[in-house]
Design goal:
There is one protein chain. This protein is an alpha/beta fold. The chain has a domain of 190 residues: FAD/NAD(P)-binding domain (3-Layer(bba) Sandwich), CATH 3.50.50.60. Helix 4 crosses helix 5. The longest helix is centred in the first third of the chain and has 22 residues. It is globular.
Length: 477
């Protein structure tokens, strides 16, 4: 294979690597996709981590952005076996004392559950949904002159504030807690500028397409993307951990689904000293600690709404979540973490033997902190589901070091390929009119370290491929 010439080579088979490969192959190019592991998928892998027959998503599990993605929308993935299921409730957030907040597909139903904040939520989210549907290409891509600048400016006024500032819109404990859980997906202190953008987009995704679950596990998404790519004539080689671009076959363009530090390690000899120096300023955010459980029965949440939710946020009030995420952001250890729980087997029977279940949960930790958070996570679940430990058959944990070993892109457990704060929301990995280009004219970066950042949407790879199609292959787009 070393003497084979391709139009393009893509290194890394996460959602963005696969997106780049598909976009290039659809344009009539010959493409080779290389994956270091024996299984494709990056963050979209599923395995029997605990007991035989119990299938666990190793990283990504619930996919709010998959059906929202313009890239995914253009693919016939159902023809390649991909199916999604909708949970009864997209997300639930229990509180001490028996109260609960719920995010549903319906704006009206979500608002109705928020009591005194219902009308505020209904008007606020209704206006945002109208803008988001028209602005998706701008929101899920690099900075450019928008088609609707005034609408984008209006959305920016809502999205740019810190989540703690936006929380002032709501009066009830339930609404404020629900909002905090959404914004905490930003994996940074909620007092940071632009953390509201994460909460808004996740809530909007629930109302537009739902927080869907792939039948069979996240690996099903990777497998469908790969099958689509191969049906177009694309080639895949697994088990090849690329150490240097010099070992790659001849190609007109190389796409790297890696972080900046890996880019320098693999392609450093081809990159300018100025560009490499700029990459040195790139910052990584907090990591995660994750637990998977094989269960005798579903998690025994006290509230029915939690028992019917695909995702459950555990952290009690906005104030508790803000405090915990602030400590993580400053590198401090603290108890009572904000915990994100996924209950895929409630809606997808392929995840466990008949009558049995799986559960998936993680919390944020300082980057590279390998402290075992199992007890803290399970205590938070017991807080709202007494007797949870009694239904656990087996468990499997992954700390920040294990995550990085599993996927080198997850430096220090950072699953977003770099912190997505205001300084790196769009200027990732550097400030550039085309962040996908590197200083080497034939090498492009296509990972979540480019806009629009982390998540299973494929848009980073899609935009990188389109940039190269214009630059190198002179394709009219």
């Amino acid at each position: 294979m070393a003497n084979t010439e391709y139009d393009a080579i893509v290194v890394g088979s996460g959602p963005n690597g696969l997106a780049a490969a598909i976009t290039l192959q659809k344009s009539g190019l010959s493409v080779l996709l290389i994956e270091g592991k024996e299984t494709i998928g990056g963050g979209m892998r599923t395995a029997e981590l605990t007991l035989p027959g119990y299938r666990h998503d190793i990283c990504s599990a619930i996919h709010p952005m998959a059906l929202m993605s313009p890239f995914f929308a253009g693919l016939p993935l159902a023809d390649f076996g991909l199916r999604f299921v909708q949970p009864t409730h997209d997300a639930a957030h229990p509180l001490d004392g028996g109260r609960v907040a719920v995010l549903d597909r319906s704006v009206e139903l979500t608002a109705a559950r928020l009591g005194a904040d219902g009308d505020t939520y209904r008007k606020w989210m209704g206006k945002l949904l109208e803008s988001i549907l028209k602005l998706l290409p701008d929101l899920l891509g690099p900075l450019r002159w928008p088609d609707e600048p005034f609408r984008l400016a209006g959305f920016g006024l809502a999205a740019l504030p810190a989540a703690t500032w936006t929380a002032a819109k709501f009066k009830t404990v339930e609404a404020r807690a629900l909002w905090a859980g959404m914004a905490a997906h930003s994996i940074q202190p909620l007092g940071n500028i632009a953390t509201s953008a994460f909460g808004i987009m996740l809530m909007a995704a629930a109302h537009i397409k739902g927080w869907v679950i792939p039948v069979g596990g996240s690996q099903s998404i990777a497998d469908a993307l790969a099958a689509n790519y191969q049906s177009l004539g694309g080639k895949i080689q697994t088990g090849w951990m690329v150490g240097s671009v010099g070992e790659l076959p001849s190609a007109k363009a190389i796409f790297m689904d890696v972080t900046p530090r890996q880019l320098v390690r693999i392609a450093g000899s081809r990159l300018s000293s100025t560009y490499k120096k700029r990459l040195e300023t790139y910052r990584h955010g907090p990591g995660i600690f994750k637990v998977d459980w094989a269960l005798d029965e579903p998690i025994p949440f006290l509230r029915e709404e939690c028992r019917g939710a695909g995702t459950v946020h555990l952290g009690n009030t906005l104030e508790e979540i803000v405090r915990y995420e602030r400590n993580v952001g400053s590198g401090k250890r603290s108890e009572k973490p904000f915990v994100l729980v996924a209950q895929q087997s409630l809606f997808d029977s392929t995840r466990a033997p008949e009558g049995k279940h799986t559960a998936w949960a993680y919390c944020h930790v300082p980057n590279g902190d390998d402290r075992d958070m199992t007890e803290a996570i399970e205590s938070q679940i017991e807080r709202y589901a007494p007797g949870f430990r009694d239904v656990v058959k087996a468990k499997h944990t992954i700390n920040t070091s294990a995550f990085e070993q599993y996927n080198p892109n997850y430096f220090g457990g950072d699953i977003n390929g770099g912190i997505q704060d205001i300084g790196q929301l769009y200027s990732r990995p550097i400030v550039s009119i085309s962040p996908y280009r590197t200083s080497a004219k034939d090498i492009y970066l296509c990972s979540s370290s480019t806009p629009p950042g982390g998540g299973v949407h494929g848009m980073c790879g899609y935009h990188a491929a389109r940039q190269a199609l214009r630059d190198i292959f002179k394709v009219e787009i």
